[in-house]
Amino acid sequence: MVIDEAQRLPEIGKITKGWYDSGVDSKIILLGSSNLDLLYQSAESLAGRNEKIYLPPLTFQEVIQDQIWYSPDFSRKAIKMNFSKQIGEILMQSIVFGNYPEAVTTERKREYLVNLISDYIFKDVLQFGLIKMTGPIKKVLALLAYQIGSEISVNGLAGSLGMARQTIERYLDLLEKTFIIFSFFREMKFHQENFFLGTTNSISH
Description:
It contains nine helices and five strands, in the order βαβααααααβααββ. It is an alpha+beta fold.
């Protein structure tokens, strides 16, 4: 049994727990563009009864392998020597637009990302009242877009945007739980939290 966008179904955690505990002879797969924990869908009710699988975007190697000029018979050296220009163009597109499958294949990449954010990502947090307006969190996204792969200071973001530290922390948590960004690790320096930022797709700005 497969349920898509499961995070939008009320009490899906408790319902799934009921199916599991009743001995339903079937695997239940819950798909979603947001973490179930984000929308408080009783994730704790599935404790010990679930396995979380994160499906990342395409790797750069997978994008290369999908090119019309690619052959599995090519060595890495041959690809680098003969297709360096194409690889450079693909790398730039990956940095700017990310590697969601449709972001890779569509010709209208920017439009796709704008629709993705408005139709899926922000729809969840707005629908369930986790934020009231998208304007402030979009400002955070725009600033983060210039710092992918860099060390980020929460206090620095708060100062640059004129927002409270607690607000920035909440927005970063929401962005991680909607799979827009992820942090490699966090560290505390003199009561200031820093982290290294990555992106699961691309932050459009």
